[in-house]
Amino acid sequence: MSYFIYNPLNKDEIRVLRLLPGEQDDALQGRLETHQLPPALGSTPPPPDGGPAASGFDALSYVWGGEVRPEDGCSIAIDGQTELGITPSLDSFLRRLRRPSDDRILWADAVCINQQDTKEREQQVALMPRVYSSADSVLVDLGEESEDSDLALEIMDAAWKKHIWAGAKFSGKDMSLEESVLLFGLGNIIKPDDSSAADRRHVLEAAGELPPRGDAKWHSVARFFSRPWFARVWVIQEFILARNPVMHLGTRTLNWRELWAPICQYADGQPLAAVPRTFESQRGVLSYFSLGVSRRLRELRTTPGGEQLILKYIPGNVDGHKLCDWLLLFQLSQCTRRRDRYFALLGLASDVAAASGAAEADLAIDYTSPIETIVVRMGRFLLSHGPDSLLMSGLSQQDSSGHLKPGTPSWVRDYTQVGRYFRGQSVLKYPHKAAGNTGFYVRPSPWRMDTIVVAGMRVDTVDTAAFASPLREFSRTRDMKHYSFDRLRRRFSLGMRAMLGGSGDQVLMDGGRYRPTGESLFDAAAKTWSHDQTEDDGLMGFHFLSWTAALGDVNKMMEAFDQAYEMTAKRFGQKSRDSVNEAMSAFNSLVFDADGFRVQPTRTRRGYFASLPDCYLPGDEIWCVVGVPMPLLLRKSDAYTEGHLYKLVGPCYVHGIMNGEVLERRASELYFLPIH
Predict the structure, then answer these.
(1) DSSP states along 512-561
(2) pLDDT 10s digits, 108-152
(3) Alpha-carbon span 441 to 570, nearest angstrom
(4) Are 433 and 659 in contact (CB under 8 A)?
(5) Which of 25, 128, 160, 520 holds its CA 20 to 30 A away from the CA of 377?
(6) Best CA proximity match to 180, nearest among 193, 167, 170
(7) Residue 287 half-sphere exposure toward CB, CA atoms < 13 A
(8) Which residues pair with 29 in a beta bridge?
């Protein structure tokens, strides 16, 4: 067998595959032709579906399914003689796309890029955003049909058509039917102006009935979203940048919006709430939901009424996400090469599009440098655009022991590995201003390449070590059979003791004031658990859990519940048991989330209540850093003997200093702080 030899490409050139006609079982044949890409579109959104043709070729979005193996026997003959090996997944997709009598012009990375030439691969990967945004259509391969794929599609079709009449629920707000149809872009199916009972009945009858809750048929939907395409990191830009994405399942073509509508929320519930949850299916649903939102926002900006809909229901500029935002949003997506987690998202990020000079060099597609070098380069770029990346970095995000990985500075977040528990959104969603209105200051160290210098002020020192959590096994496995209220109660008791001290639970019922703010110790402790996001109902749940924890060691649990209800009703004005139950459940979730996010409450040397990464050690220091919205927990490093060098443990919450109090009072005491 002879093998294909690629001709070199010039700048802005790609190869396209002219797939020759044939029947299903005929050998695959084609020709590779050089194609000049149109000029880069920059940050301009692609036109909505049906926009003018741009290129004369369609691009494929598919799962490689591993490396090419000769034993699979899959190949395509180029120019009638040279065999080019391909994976079984691409072989299957090309056979389904091939026409019986006409050529098809396609772009598939495995064929159109010389995968053996590293330099060409780097250059072509950098062009991929332009490839997918200029292709006439992006053909998405969800794989072959399965025994229950038709059933899954029928259930999803019936689900969204049943719920849409109540209106979608987006960002916690209820939409009208007309707005919902505009959001989903399904006006060809649902006509808001003709939403009479008869019209609605006609749509519902055509969609069919949903299986009862608990029926085994719901498993078909879980298996559908467990398909590999939904988990792949490269499909993110391929789908979002596409002019016209066309979903292929076996020989069927599907409307992507009709797959997105059933996984959205509606005023009367979630259509797929009865679907059994597996990690794979939940990952697929979350990924496709984010893909749909990101893509639909780009379309709505060019649609009459779309901009107004975005301003009304979708806070912030999601379409203007920075690289850090995209890395967080698709943190569970998979890739074979670790560095591709960055490379696959560069074409979507607003800050990458504006990069120049040294920052642009840090972002270069590079398949030769060690992965540690790539991670540090990307970390340097992320840090140059604000403090958010610091809040996702540190020893707390390195490994289960809180030790620094060789070759990775503590201020760099290695997004290529999920590591411990990825808590980016939980850190960024709270509007804290521990640094007040100061601007972020960071500089590279003149002495060490792996060190940065920030400006800050030491707040306090930690004298204790973290405790072992009774919930840890459950947090690790996410298996409900490991959960019990008693474990949660004991976890809560340990946290309260760490803040309030004492050898017994009775201390949880004592009064007293929290000196930094003047409020009660209980209120300060509750706000520390929740990072000061506790509403009145949450405070009631905190008190109920406190009293239950205090009484549970002495009385039987049901008696403890009864007494705690009475005390809560007296404290909060004769609340019903249902309202107390709801409040307690809400606060229980906070306790459980704190454990899952690997943070623990404690009391510092000077008496501050703090929520720290749970790998903290005696001697760790809390610093307020200029321009960083949360205090940072730092640990002295032994890597430098001529002065203090610190490692970043992670961000933390310290009650009473989260609104600029420290830097405003002691601005003259700033230190330049090297972090390794």
Answers:
(1) -B-TTT-SBHHHHHHHHHHTS---HHHHHHHHHHHHHHHHHTTS-HHHHH
(2) 999 999 999 999 999 999 999 999 999 999 999 999 999 999 999
(3) 50
(4) yes
(5) 128
(6) 167
(7) 26
(8) 77
Does 639 have pLDDT greater than 70? no
Kindly report the backbone phi and psi dihedral angles of residue 115, in degrees, each rounded to the nearest multiple of 5, phi listed first: -70, -15
Phi, psi (rounded to 5 degrees) for 96: -75, -25
Handedness of CA 537, 542, 543, 544 (dihedral sign): positive
Q: How many CB atoms lie within 10 A of CB 511?
A: 7
pLDDT at 473 over 60: no
Nearest to 315 by CA among 283, 293, 333: 293
> What is the spatial distance between Cα 356 and Cα 584, in angstroms, rounded to a whole number?
51
Paired with 85 in beta bridges are 75
Nearest-CA neighbor of 90 among 115, 107, 114?
107
- Please, what is the Cα angle at 145 between 140 and 151, to 5 degrees? 110
Q: How many CB atoms lie within 10 A of CB 417?
A: 17
Determine how β-strand 138-141 pairs with β-strand 632-636.
Answer: unpaired
3-state DSSP helix/strand/coil percent for the chain, to nearest 5? 40, 15, 45
Distance (Å, rounded) from C-alpha 377 to C-alpha 296?
32
The DSSP-derived string for 41-63 is -TTPPPPPTTPPP-SS-EEEE--
Distances (CA, A) of 574 to 473, 569, 578, 584, 641: 37, 4, 12, 15, 62
CB 260 within 8 Å of CB 156: no
Give the angle subtended at the CA of 134 by the CAs of 129 and 139, to the nearest 5°.
85
Give the residue carrying structure tokens 């230190």.
671
Determine the distance from the C-alpha atom of residue 327 to the mean position of all C-alpha atoms in its chain, rounded to a whole number.
Answer: 7
- From the list 61, 110, 59, 60, the residue with the least C-alpha distance to 85 is 110
Distance of CA 300 to the CA centre of its chain: 22
Q: How far apart are CA 651 and CA 350, in angstroms?
A: 25
Residue 600 main-chain phi, psi, to 5 deg? -135, 145
Instruction: Supply φ then ψ for residue 475, to 5 degrees.
Output: -60, -35
Q: Yes or no: say if 168 and 265 are a contact pair by the CB < 8 Å rule.
A: yes
Q: CA–CA separation, 521 vs 517, rounded Å?
A: 10
Helical H segments across 553-660, by residue range: 557-572, 577-596
**Complete edge-to-edge strand list for the sheet that includes strand 245-249:** 82-85, 75-78, 28-36, 13-19, 104-107, 58-61, 138-141, 245-249, 252-254
Tens digits of residue pLDDT in 191-210:
776 566 666 676 766 777 89
Note the Cα 267 to chain centre separation in Å: 24
Distance separating alpha carbons of residues 237 and 352, to the nearest angstrom:
14
DSSP summary character for residue 413: -
pLDDT band at 182 (very low <50, low <70, confident <90, very high): very high
- The residue assigned the tokens 């926002």 is 297
> What size, in residues, is the chain?
676
Q: Which residues pair with 254 in a beta bridge?
A: 247
Lowest mean pLDDT among 63-77, 91-105, 477-491, 560-574: 477-491
242-253, pLDDT tens digit by residue? Answer: 999 999 999 999
Rounded CA-CA distance 76/31 in Å is 10
Count of other CB atoms within 10 angstroms of residue 34: 12
